[in-house]
Amino acid sequence: MRKALIVVLSLAMFCTACSTAWVSTLDSILVAAAPALINILQIVAVANGQPVNANLAAKISADATIIKTLAGDFAKTSSGSTPGVCQQLQAAVGVYQADQQLVLQIAQVGDSNTQTKITLLAGLVAGTVNAIMAVIPSCQNAAATRSMKTLPPYNVSTFADHYNSILLAPTGNAAVDAATPRLQLHRHSKLVRAVTFGRLE
């Protein structure tokens, strides 16, 4: 009896770890992807000599937060309410994907080098939607799959490195080249960077 209990508890702990693991992976993707998308708006604003689209930037941040919240709720819900939460989560990802498309529509500048930079950055950020969709369990049989989800290969540090290398490539546009260094993505939180006195980026 004791051995059986140990097996059941171990399985429960394993499933809980898997459940929180996919939510953590989703969070880490959004922590990098949403600011990266907002940075594109800032580059467009600098290149065109206009204010940044603050409403769209705020919407992107809010939509990313909604996804995080729904993912946490989905990981904790009972099997009876899971399909509804799962569908809300997938709908929220659809809204976030529409945000990306809207950024692409307005990300037009006259400087060809800056436009190339924007296009490359947007392409890199667009791939994060696929990573997000890969993490989220299917709504069919969601109660069984949400805790056993196999995590896709996704490395936020690699994403940040690629993004930053494109971001810092000179365009010849003095205003853009002066602005982009402060838009770099960081692999660690502000707290970690402060504690390590900036040694960890």
What would you note in describing this structure?
- The chain is mostly helical.
- It has one domain.
- Helix content is 74%, strand content 0%.
- The radius of gyration is 20 Å and the shape is elongated.
- The termini are far apart.
**What is the number of independent domains?**
1
**Assembly context of the chains:** single chain
Low-confidence stretches: 1-18, 144-152, 191-200
* Biggest sheet architecture: none
Outline, from the CA principal axes? elongated
Number of strands: 0
How large is the count of helical segments? Answer: 8
Structural class of the secondary structure composition? mainly alpha
Please give the radius of gyration in angstroms.
Answer: 20 Å
Q: Order of SSEs, N→C?
A: HHHHHHHH
| Strand residues, percent | under 5%
* Ends apart, CA distance between termini: 50 Å
Mean pLDDT: 78
Helicity range: over 70%
